[in-house]
């Protein structure tokens, strides 16, 4: 039998945490044959609710779930972690400026990065879900100099999945027929869902759609503002779909992309496609044997170039702001 994989979830008592933990414990994160130990990291006010969730996890009698540890100490929470899902973050509240938001999150992600650096397993893989996800991932990564930078990633898989779903609805295709969609840039309203290289049942998606006005005025804003539309409808932000995307992100990273397809991940840029080295930006990536690679050689048209540049510009500004705050 396999050794259990240690999976740490921060913000475990939150709404994404509640949707996420049961799927990790039932084998959807890593596979149906991989036992897991769960480490739930919360702030003191969240511990009691996390204990309640742990009781429910016990009550599922999941065959793959070996043990659950609950803590508010990051050094304990990340001890021996093989996978860390950083979900807990400081949300933007009314009247909060971007600088306030970045420094409040710096107070979370800098110490967590250091705790990962000092305590996690050598093969640690980190996914940051908590917003602003890309820049929070950058802060954590900068605080973990002994961990290879590429192990710090940010979630744009929800945007990716939303874009596939919107494209399927527009074209009448099955979601499973859509391949090679890309989210570029930041997980924010500037993100760019790119269908110019996507395929629908083997045909070029942009040619199937053949409507640039729909792309510019409907598709892109619908995907980018979907989070706000969910809040409007549900009275709460995306939770189950966000948890599902986190599962997809890590599952794909660990288990690989399908032949002929790729996915979108926020990863430290190596300078590809003119994205400044070091910022954590979303790219098209293929994965294999637990490693990812940026898909190279895509032809970027003017429509795409302007939108990638705008989102990357926002990421560069966020990086400069956290640098000025001494967070990286
Ligand atoms: P909730 O407010 O329901 O839960 C957050 C939890 O984090 C709380 O239980 C809180 O006690 C805990 N927490 C706060 N600081 C912590 C710390 N320092 N250590 C450990 N735990 C801490 O939020 P939820 O709806 O679960 O959303 C979590 C984060 O995901 C938010 O930042 C949200 O903006 C972000 N999202 C990111 C998405 C993405 O695509 N990247 C989409 C969904 C979601 O909006």
UniProtKB/TrEMBL annotation:
GO terms for molecular function: L-malate dehydrogenase (NAD+) activity. Keywords: NAD, Oxidoreductase, Tricarboxylic acid cycle. InterPro entries: L-lactate/malate_DH (IPR001557), Lactate/malate_DH_C (IPR022383), Lactate/malate_DH_N (IPR001236), Lactate_DH/Glyco_Ohase_4_C (IPR015955), Malate_DH_AS (IPR001252), Malate_DH_type2 (IPR010945), NAD(P)-bd_dom_sf (IPR036291). The keyword NAD applies. It comes from the Bacteria. SUPFAM superfamilies: LDH C-terminal domain-like, NAD(P)-binding Rossmann-fold domains. PROSITE patterns: MDH (PS00068). Its EC number is 1.1.1.37. Substrate binds at residues 92, 98, 131, 162. Residues 6-145 form the Lactate/malate dehydrogenase N-terminal domain. Transmembrane segments: none annotated. It catalyses: (S)-malate + NAD(+) = oxaloacetate + NADH + H(+). Pfam families: Ldh_1_C, Ldh_1_N. Coiled coil: none annotated. CDD domains: MDH_chloroplast-like. Residues 156-322 form the Lactate/malate dehydrogenase C-terminal domain. NAD(+) binds at residues 11-17, 105, 112, 129-131. The active site is at 187 (proton acceptor). Belongs to the LDH/MDH superfamily. MDH type 2 family. Catalyzes the reversible oxidation of malate to oxaloacetate. This is Malate dehydrogenase. It comes from Streptomyces atroolivaceus.
């Amino acid at each position: 039998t396999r050794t259990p994989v240690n999976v740490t979830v921060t913000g475990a008592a939150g709404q994404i945490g509640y949707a996420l933990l049961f799927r990790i414990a039932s084998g959807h994160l890593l596979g149906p044959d991989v036992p897991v130990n769960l480490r739930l990291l919360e702030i003191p006010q969240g511990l009691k609710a996390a204990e309640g969730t742990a009781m429910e996890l016990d009550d599922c009698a999941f065959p793959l779930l070996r043990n659950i540890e609950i803590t508010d100490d990051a050094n304990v929470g990340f001890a021996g972690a093989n996978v860390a899902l950083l979900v807990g973050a400081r949300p933007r509240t009314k009247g909060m400026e971007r600088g306030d938001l970045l420094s409040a999150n710096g107070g979370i992600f800098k110490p967590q990065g250091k705790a990962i650096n000092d305590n996690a397993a050598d093969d640690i893989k980190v996914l940051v879900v908590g917003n602003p996800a890309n820049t929070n991932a950058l802060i954590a990564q900068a605080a973990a100099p002994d961990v290879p930078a590429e192990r710090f990633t940010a979630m744009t898989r929800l945007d990716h999945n939303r874009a596939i779903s919107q494209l399927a609805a527009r074209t009448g295709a099955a979601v499973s027929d859509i391949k090679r969609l890309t989210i570029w840039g930041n997980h924010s309203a500037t993100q760019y869902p790119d269908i110019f290289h996507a395929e629908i049942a083997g045909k070029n998606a942009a040619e199937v759609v053949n409507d640039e006005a729909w792309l510019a005025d409907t598709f892109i804003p619908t995907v980018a503002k979907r989070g706000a539309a969910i809040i409007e409808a549900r009275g709460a932000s995306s939770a189950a779909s966000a948890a599902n995307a986190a599962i997809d992100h890590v599952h794909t990273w660990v288990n690989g992309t399908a032949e002929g397809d790729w996915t979108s991940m926020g990863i430290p840029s190596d300078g590809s496609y003119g994205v400044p080295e070091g910022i954590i930006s979303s790219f098209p990536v293929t994965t294999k044997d637990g490693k990812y690679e940026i898909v190279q050689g895509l032809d970027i048209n003017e429509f795409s170039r302007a939108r990638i540049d705008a989102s990357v510009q926002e990421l560069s500004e966020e990086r400069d702001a956290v640098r000025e705050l001494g967070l990286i």
